[in-house]
Write a structure and sequence with these properties.
Layout (H helix, E strand, L loop, with lengths): L1 H18 L8 H24 L11 H18 L1
Helix pairs in contact: 2-3
């Protein structure tokens, strides 16, 4: 019965988060999402030498490609927070 109690407790926690007023959430999750994008860009820049053969029509350090991908990921990550 311990597993069922754990599931019920987690479900109550999720429902409480859903019930929270829209303005009551902190900026912590959004800052975490932005930090993840920044870390991802850094990792992508570091791994471009390994992927140079896979890139067609884009240079390994194309700033437009990095900005485009980050601008697509941020709006997806923020609502998930």
């Amino acid at each position: 019965m311990g597993d069922a109690d754990d599931v019920a407790e987690r479900l109550r926690a999720v429902v409480q988060r859903w019930r929270a007023p829209p303005g009551s959430t902190s900026r912590g999750p959004s800052q975490l999402a932005l930090a993840g994008v920044a870390i991802g860009i850094g990792a992508a820049l570091g791994l471009t030498r390994l992927m140079t053969n896979l890139l067609f029509g884009v240079t390994a350090h194309d700033p437009l490609a990095f900005v485009a991908v980050a601008s697509l990921l941020i709006p997806v990550a923020l609502p998930a927070c």
